Amino acid sequence: MSLAPGSTIGIIGGGQLGRMLAMAAARLGYRIVVLEPQADCPAAQVANRQIVAAYDDRAALADLAAASAVVTYEFENVPVAAARTLAATVPVYPPGRALEVAQDRVTEKSFLNDIGIPTAEFCPVDNDDHLTEALRKFDGSGVLKTRRMGYDGKGQRVFRNMETGGFAGTCEAMGNVPLILESLVAFEREISVIAARGLDGAIAAYDPAENVHREGILRSSTLPAAIGPQTAAAAKDAAAKILSALDYVGVIGVEFFVLADGSLLANELAPRVHNSGHW
User: Cis peptide before 224, with omega less than 30 degrees from 0?
Assistant: First the structure.
């Protein structure tokens, strides 16, 4: 697929990443239409047009498809059904399968483990009894997270060396939504790889960035990361493996924990452009 200059790219989501996507596209000679329910969003300020509607509004999706040569998105919580509705009439990248995997932490970690990429140990948690059992498995420590929609450290609670009992009301306090308990990881640093895969299957990746988070929010990214060449190569290889397994087209961010011996645990997938790639 060749996208001629002057073509229109549709972007679902109008935040800061959508804004930067729109600005980069404009420099390459493309037009931008944004679908975003918030009027005058950051991306709309630099786009050619904004469709102000919910992400799952069928009329708005039809409008976006008709206006666009290709559609992408700037965040991973786009309704999968909306992406698939669009894909019936216009190319949508990254694919809906990537959204399905990235939107649920249990699905995401299961996918990674299935293709041979290690993660922190984890247990699905649906009630307080499940939490007690999971904490017992992890010696009373772990990070309890919502399975869906959590970001920037929201929807999380950390347990350290807790007695494995007396957690009545914990799941209710977390919103009575499906949860996941992840084992605590004694990591030395966090890194991320920005990689891309084309329609022809060709893959390219930048060198890993070293990231510092405070209260769950990315504060700085440094390149080159303070890791050895074998660790850097392993991170890029893992990203390539993920892209191929998803038959991915587009840019992805893959976050890793680096352990003391230089080995890696995959932490999270971002099927979109990523904040550690602004350099």
Answer: yes
- Residues forming beta bridges with residue 146, ordered by sequence position: 179
Distance between CA atoms of 260 and 226, rounded to whole angstroms?
A: 12
Enter the pTM of the model.
Answer: 0.93
Per-residue pLDDT reduced to its tens digit, 228-259: 999 999 999 999 999 999 999 999 999 999 99
211 contacts: CB under 8 Å, gap ≥ 6: 190, 191, 192, 218, 220, 221, 222, 255, 276
Query: 229 Cβ partners below 8 Å, 6+ apart?
Result: none
Answer whether residue 153 shows pLDDT above 60: no
Distance of CA 273 to the CA centre of its chain: 9
According to DSSP H, which parts of the chain are helical? 16-27, 58-67, 80-87, 96-103, 105-114, 128-137, 170-173, 229-245
CA distance 138 to 132: 10
Cα-to-chain-centroid distance, residue 272? 7
- All domains of the chain, ordered by start, with CATH? 8-92 (3.40.50.20), 101-118+185-277 (3.30.470.20), 122-182 (3.30.1490.20)
Q: What is the rounded CA–CA span in Å between residue 13 and residue 10?
A: 10
In the predicted model, what is the mean pLDDT of residues 83-95? 97
Which amino acid belongs to residue 239? A
Q: What is the pLDDT of residues 112-125, one digit of tens each?
A: 999 999 999 999 99
Q: Which long-range contacts (CB under 8 A, 24 or more apart) does 224-231 make?
A: 225/189, 225/191, 226/189, 227/189, 227/191, 227/258, 227/262, 228/262, 230/262, 231/258, 231/262, 231/263, 231/264
**H-type helices in 140-278, by residue range?**
170-173, 229-245
